Backbone:
């Protein structure tokens, strides 16, 4: 039996299974993160963007967050290292600026203008959970965001911030240690 359109789905599933194997192998490593990135195994078609995470607040946390537009969804794939074991919040922030020592220059967590109070913020991303070696990865499909189309939902030019632990209501404060561990600006590839 032949199913039209199944080939692209099979390719994505094959790449995700490769990702799962590589992630499993990476979690076994006690020395360093692998030299591959999600960009190496993500599908090549569609708009793509990346944020390279740099350490903030004296941390050594770093990594890469990759985005690929797939119709009305965006696939996000993140690899982050040097975290403390356990869950960590990761958000899209309003401003694409990671220049301050504590990442407060990235501004507040991004929310659509006019969004109803109590609505889930547009910048909420899946939690990272670091293993005993401090490495974390996540792959997820997100709706309600776009890449590079200039619409109000476009995340290109905004920042990604990784937080220490779970931070349900992060607020930028300049000049203080705030637990914002890494920051990167989302740029088209």
Residues:
């Amino acid at each position: 039996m032949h199913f039209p359109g199944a080939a692209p789905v099979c390719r994505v599933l094959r790449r995700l299974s490769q990702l799962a194997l590589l992630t499993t192998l990476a979690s076994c490593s006690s020395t360093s993160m692998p030299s591959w990135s999600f960009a190496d195994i993500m599908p090549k078609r569609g708009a793509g963007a990346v944020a390279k995470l740099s350490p903030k607040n004296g941390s050594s946390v770093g990594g890469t967050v990759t985005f690929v537009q797939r119709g009305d969804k965006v696939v996000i794939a993140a690899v982050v290292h040097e975290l403390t074991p356990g869950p960590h919040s990761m958000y899209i922030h309003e401003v694409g600026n990671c220049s301050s020592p504590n990442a407060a220059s990235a501004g507040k967590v991004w929310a659509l203008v006019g969004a109803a109070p109590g609505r889930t913020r547009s910048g909420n991303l899946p939690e990272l959970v670091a293993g005993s070696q401090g490495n974390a990865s996540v792959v997820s499909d997100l709706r309600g965001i776009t890449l590079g189309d200039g619409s109000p939902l476009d995340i290109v030019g905004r920042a990604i911030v990784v937080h220490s632990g779970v931070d349900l209501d992060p607020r930028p404060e300049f000049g203080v240690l705030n637990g914002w561990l890494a920051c990167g600006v989302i740029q088209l590839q």
The helical segments are 6-28, 38-41. The radius of gyration is 17 Å. The chain has a mean pLDDT of 77. The first helix runs from residue 6 to 28.
